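Hi, here's the filled form for the chain we discussed.

Project: internal
Contact: R.S.
Residues: 61
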Amino acid sequence: MLQCLPVYPDAAWWKFYNVYLVIIQYFVPMIILDTAYTMIAVKIWTMSKSRVDETNPANQK
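And the returned structure, exactly as it came back:
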């Protein structure tokens, strides 16, 4: 049975490449999604808080 396997001159390079892939394929998208969801949550929270303040008769002059 014949197999084609990658041959790298240094095992450390292969480890670095795997770490790089994990960062690019997992952590970068996770940070982007976390940032987007946090921005959405803050926007909704501030809008709902201002809406509650508008409907509270004690805050009206």
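Let me know if anything looks off before we file it.
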